[in-house]
Structure formats: structure tokens, C-alpha cells
Amino acid sequence: MSERTTDTAGPATETFTAHRNLLFTVAYEMLGSAADAEDVVQETWLRWSAVDLAEVRDRRAYLVRIATRQALTRLRTLARRRETYVGSWLPEPLLTTPDVAEDVELADSVSTAVLLVLETLTPTERAVFVLREVFAVEYDEIAEAVGKSPAAVRQIAHRARAHVAARRPRESVSPAETRRALAAFQQAVETGDLSELLDMLAPDVVLVGDGGGLRQAIPNPVRGFPHVARVLSAGLPTLGARAHVEPTEVNGHPALLIHLDGEIDDVLTLRMEAGQITALYVVRNPEKLTRLTSPTHFTR
Question: Rounded to two decimals, what is the model's pTM?
């Protein structure tokens, strides 16, 4: 036993390190939480370090299979926890590097809008969708990861694909277009002039805030132009000199970090369609603002 450990410790560590960012990305797309994704990565390592590598044909696939199983277990636990979450739940925002935005499919899959759509899938549907549509894993491999037959996985993939397609943004929006909308929001915060921002709101726009019960936030989504405009008009001009607004990239897309009194207070991301803002997502929960000092490296 000790001889096997000596022989495999180096290769096992090297393989795990080489695929660590991939495993984190898989787990994050399934969970929407960096802290939980990190736990899944650690649990994957514990199981991987005990594997006899001589019996592993495809190390990448084997690692992804372990991570998927661990994420599925955790996802079912999280589903129960979110039933008692205070207010609206939003995915944890993560700073990203420009290379994530350059991979359009990857950036789309980790966007706030798409992660929220994935929340409406069952755990197994979400695992199958993420592995097939984002990481192009073969059906046989997915079947082993989720404990289903390949034929069942194909049916689940078809169902999940149709479900997501009906709910995700219908067209891609250029980063420049999103930055223009964010600049209008920044202007509203810094000057109190909301005219340009209000002009960009869609009639059916929705405003979602996540304070997690730890900071004041809108308890339920605000829907429709008149209601969202009223909330923004009442709140943004009051920030004034206390606020410092910083354009950045979050989850592969342009976003704003809003600092109040020198501390990150919230993160704003948008969903846009046909040149209009259809959703504003504001994360204020301090437990979700802890990874905004350095970028997260998503990969596939």
C-alpha cells in the first residue's frame, strides 16, 4: 500500500492541479456558490488521492465524474437550505479575467442570468446540461457521473436544453452595449441624473436584490418599468458622495462594484435584450462579496 502511495502521489497531485480550475468551474456552474464549489473541489481531491491511477483510463473524465457526484450531493442539500433563505437568492458574483469573456459560451454559462435559469432545473437535469452543453462530455461519461443509463441521459439533456432555451436571453449582447447601460447606472449614482438609465429600461424589467438577511435589500423582485423606476429614483440619488462606482468584469461580463464608505457594498450585473435592460441583479449579501479582490479562473 505504501509503495502504491509513493508511486502515485506525484502524478495524482500533478493531474489534480492541472484540472483544478476545470473542477471548480463544473462545481460552480452546478451550485452558483464559490464556497460550496471549493468544498466540492476539496472533496474531489480526497477521493482522487485514494484512487489507483493504473486503473484510470481518462484522468480528466474521472475527476469530472467525482466532482459531479459531489456537487449533486451538495446541490440537493443547498436546495433545502435555499427554501429558508431570506429574500431573493442570487449566484455569488466572481471577478473574472478577459479570457473568460473571450470564450463566449463559457461566459454565457457562468452569467448571472443563465445561472438563475439553471436554478429552475432539477439537480440531475442541471448536471446533465452543464456537462453536455458547456463541457461537451459524452453521454456515456455523463451517465456514469449521474447514475443513469445513456438513453435516459439523452432524454434528460433534451428536456433540459429545451427548458433553458425557453428562459435564457434570446440574443447575445455586445460587452460595449452592456457597458453603456452600466455607465448610465453609474451616472445615476454619481450625479442623481437617472434620465439615461430610465430610457434603457424595458417595459417588463425586473429588479432583484440579494442581502441574505444580513444587509437591507429588496425582499422580493420588483417587476415592471413603473415600479423599478420608482425604486431606483428613490434610492440611487441618496448614495451621492458616499459611493465610489468601479466598472469591472464579473462572471465573464461587464459589471459594477459599488463601494460605500470605502467598502464593497454591492455588485450590479445586468440582463439585456434588444438594447434594453430586462433585469438588474444587485448582490449585497456580505458573505457573497468575499472573492472580489482577485479574479477567479474559469476554464473548460
Answer: 0.93
